[in-house]
């Protein structure tokens, strides 16, 4: 492989891993902000369920006209607000997914443009501080796939939620938590450790 091609590919790989590192931090922070919102959603669903189960007309509160309707309206409004905040968080997660996808696409495209000047040794050669180009491209594509799938699953879950569908809202926090993929996140962190010397070298 020609020296300039190898050098530009290494630069693009460094840039990609830097993008991955920065965006992994943002992703984790946004997901941490989503957790209390999902808990709120579950709590509001429980309150709606309790309101549906109680006969206000059989309690001392019957003297307050329209109380049940007003309480239900308040709960629907609060649920709608929380869903709105979660959708804002999804925009942040989408930005992370897009940043990683665009960067990985760019480095893969650069690699493909230089395939004529590549030899197998240049692609598979590794040293104590620099993993092989083949390994690094594979790690980046794995990370990109992880964030793409995670975003899609979380977005799909949120799209099924409606303020007036108590059952789905009640199960939402558990279903959201079930989407967590600590092994994939650990794998990305491990990858960033493997390329740390490479990222610092120029």
TrEMBL record:
What's in the GO CC field? Answer: cytoplasm; nucleus
InterPro entries hit by this protein:
CA109-like
Q: What is this protein called?
A: AFG2 interacting ribosome maturation factor
Q: What is the lineage of its organism?
A: Eukaryota, Metazoa, Chordata, Craniata, Vertebrata
Q: Which gene codes for it?
A: AIRIM
């Amino acid at each position: 492989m020609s020296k300039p091609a190898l050098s530009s590919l290494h630069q693009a790989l460094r840039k990609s891993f830097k993008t991955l590192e920065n965006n992994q931090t943002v992703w984790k922070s946004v997901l941490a902000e989503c957790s209390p919102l999902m808990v709120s959603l579950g709590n509001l669903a429980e309150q709606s369920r309790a309101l549906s189960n109680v006969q206000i007309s059989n309690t001392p509160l019957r003297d307050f006209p329209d109380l049940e309707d007003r309480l239900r309206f308040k709960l629907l409004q609060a649920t709608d607000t929380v869903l709105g905040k979660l959708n804002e968080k999804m925009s942040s997660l989408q930005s992370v997914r897009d940043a990683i996808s665009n960067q990985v696409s760019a480095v893969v495209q650069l690699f493909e443009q230089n395939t004529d000047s590549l030899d197998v040794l240049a692609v598979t050669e590794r040293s104590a501080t620099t993993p092989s180009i083949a390994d690094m491209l594979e790690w980046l594509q794995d990370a990109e796939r992880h964030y793409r799938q995670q975003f899609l699953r979380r977005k799909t879950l949120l799209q099924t939620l409606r303020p007036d569908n108590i059952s789905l809202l009640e199960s939402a926090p558990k279903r959201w938590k079930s989407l967590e993929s600590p092994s994939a996140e650990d794998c990305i962190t491990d990858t960033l450790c493997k390329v740390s010397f490479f990222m610092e070298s120029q």
